[in-house]
Structures are given as structure tokens and as C-alpha cells.
Amino acid sequence: MISKPLVxxxxxxxxxxxxxxxxxxxxxxxxxxxxxxxxPTNVMINCFDTIGDTPxxxxxxxxxxxxxxxxxxxxFEDGGPVERLMQGDITDLEGKPWGLCxxxxxxxxxxxxxxxxxVSLLSAFEHEFQFKTGSDMPGExxxxxxxxxxxxxxxxxxxxxxxxxxxxDTFMTEFGPKQYEVTIGPKKGVSxxxxxxxxxxxxxxxxxxxxxxxxFTPIRDxxxxxxxxxxxxxxxxxxxxxxxxxxxxxxGMSTLTGSFIAGILKYLDSIVAITAPSDIxxxxxxxxxxxxxxxxxxxxxxxxxxxxxxxxxxxPTSIARQFNxxxxxxDATASPHLALAAILHAGAQGIEDSLPxxxxxxxxxxxxxxxxxxxxxxxxLPETLEQALLRFENNxxxxxxxxxxxxxxxxAHKRGELAYLHDxxxxxxxxxxxxxx
Length: 437
Ligand code: GLU
Ligand code: MG
Prior knowledge:
Blueprint: E1 6-12, E2 18-24, H1 28-34, E3 36-38, E4 62-66, E5 72-74, E6 83-91, H2 102-117, E7 120-131, H3 144-149, H4 151-163, E8 168-173, E9 179-184, E10 187-188, H5 190-209, E11 214-215, E12 229-236, H6 255-275, H7 281-284, E13 297-299, E14 306-308, H8 316-322, E15 325-330, H9 336-352, H10 370-375, H11 385-394, H12 396-400, H13 406-421, H14 426-436
Parallel strand pairs: 1-6, 13-14
Antiparallel strand pairs: 1-2, 3-4, 4-6, 5-6, 7-9, 7-10, 7-11, 7-12, 8-9, 12-15, 14-15
Helix pairs in contact: 2-9, 4-5, 6-9, 6-11, 11-13
Bound molecules: glutamic acid and magnesium ion (MG).
């Protein structure tokens, strides 16, 4: 069959969807300069393909400029087409970043972190997902049999990720029905979020090439476990030395880390609308699901919103290099760029305000009476997306971290998504999300 190779320029948008336009590979050089045309109202297309109350209508023009640093050229060597994609930034026709470009929003957050903390970010997104195809295999949580069942998939996926410039770390059978987890090595700055996009899309592509189907939806069944996205973070100072750890700090946190995490905890209830942005995200963010339900930092505690992760090293220099913490109140309905930007702004605010290092929890907060939670400063995270959106909308500090037009458009987008679900019960909502993520 004749074929003219195409490259697709993409952006991860407010719906956490990866949308774009393709052009012939032979035009790459000129497209790296002039990009492809893009339309403002596209940002209002929610995950169900309905368009909320768009402030843009049919008006306006934008450019999506592919960034060659994100180039993916993936040949599965199965006789199918080579996948070629490049993520990019959305700008106006003069080349100025568009206020709703998630990648530009993340770049601004990274710059703020550098300005207030003198550090750059190293991060890695850990993903859980479930197969929609194949038999249920009950009783196979974490088992060899569960792994063997998908070894071929795992090995193809790892090769594919490596070909895309990611560093394969682990692949395992998780606890839920046909649930798996894949982890990759950390990357600096914006490329960590770019890598999360690649990981999700390449996982889907791999499944398809093997005749399977996967979903990253936050939860498939209200009575079962969720699919989390855990965002691991650590800092490097200007000389690229680790700056996250202090052996004398609370649970090993440096002063900077302590203030950063304190900022996340302070603003957490107002940023979950961005990091866990679907209606059913709030079925997952409930106690006893090993996700996140309160604004606490836990020491090696998998129920905490922020968790200080374990290290295997023994000597202080290696510990400092391994030391990291993870944000657990995120899922794959969020754009990785936007989720990371919200977390970084909250942390940067904590550094700017010199918030004291929070004390760490090593207990089940769900059993504490309300007065004790209040006394100790713990807040139950919003229990619905609508509640979460209200917290975001009413928090002027948080809205102020983003470009002027962002908050109103984001909220309108999400309210459009909720309108689509209005007559559906929890099971139907789960089914709707698993169809699209
Ligand atoms: N599935 C859990 C979540 O929704 C995470 C389980 C774990 O890996 O600790 O975040
Ligand atoms: Mg897991």
C-alpha cells in the first residue's frame, strides 16, 4: 500500500485528552516554525465530546507549535504504521503562549518554583490502569500468573517506552481486577509531564496492537479499587545537587521540601479540581482505598495525599539522591501538565510564605472524630467534583496562579462535563468515563 508518513502535533488539554493535527513528515522543518492551526473553542470540548458554555464561539485562531524535544517515532515492527507524534505549545498568531495551553502553564509554574526556591524539579508519574479485554482472573492480585498473562504486553510496552526515550522502571499486576501498574524513571521539568502523556498513549497503542483494550479511568466500579496517578517529586539545586532531603529534618524533609509540602496541604482542597478532575474521581478519593482523602503528609503511608516514599540507600549522599515524595490525589483524567502545574504553584506558594514543615501522619485519619481532625488541621478533601470546583473558584489565591482567562474557562468546561452526566447513576457514570479514558 502506498503511504506518506504523517507526524501529529498534539497538546494535552483541559479534558486530559491528547488532541492534535497531523502533517506530512516531509513538511516537518517548516511546521516546527509555523505550527498547525488551532481553534480556541477546542479547549471547551470535554471528554464526552460535548461543548460547554464556550466564551470563544466560532471566533479566533491559534497555533500549535510542535516541540522537537518531544519527538516520538515508534515502530512496533508488527507491520502496522510507525507512530510519529510531537507535543507542542499553543500560542496566539504572534507567538505568545495562550492562557489555556497546559504546557505553557506548567513552564510558568516551573519558573516560579525556580524563582522562589532556587530549585528545578525532577518528577515521575506512576500509573495504574486496567484491561477491559480478557477474562477477569479473580485471585490474581500481585501474582506471577497475573503477570505471566500479560508478560507479552508488558515486554512490548517496555520496549515501546524505551524507544520513546522513557526509562522503563517496573511493570506489575496490581490489586484490582485486571489492574496493572507501570512506572518510569524521573525526568526534569516539563519533560516529566510530556513523558506521562507518552506513557498513557503508548500503553493504549500497545494494547490495541495486541488486540486488547485498557482504561486509565479513576474507578471502574464504585465498590472496587481505583486507578491512581502518583506523581513523584524531588528537587535539584542550581548545581544539580539533590535538595529534597535533610537528615535532621522531619521525616527527612529539607526546609524547602517542608514548606513546599505544607503549601500543597494548605491548598489541596482547592487544587484537586485540577488534579482529580472527573466526576468519578471523588469515588476514588475516599478513605480505605489507598488513594487520598485528607490533606495529610504520611510517612510511608499509602492513604496520605502526600507520601514520603521509602529509600533503599544507607549512606546520606545516596539517600539524598533517592529521597522523594509523591502526590497521590491525582488521576489520569487530568492533563499531566496541568496537574503538575497546580501542585507546583501550591508548593511554590508554601515556599514563598515560608510555611513550616508539617508533621507527618502514620495513622488512619478516617477513624478520628471531627473535632480532632479540626484541631490538628486536617481537612476532608471535597467529596464531589462540584464541591471541588467551588473550592477552586472561590480561592482567589489559587485562581491567581493561572493566566487570567484560565479559571472561568476551566470551570465552564467542567460544568459542561457534569451536565452530560446529570441523569446518570454512579455505575453509569463509571461506564461513561471508562469509555473515554
Ligand atoms: N490504587 C490506589 C490508588 O487509587 C493505589 C494503590 C497503591 O499503589 O498504593 O491510588
Ligand atoms: Mg499502585
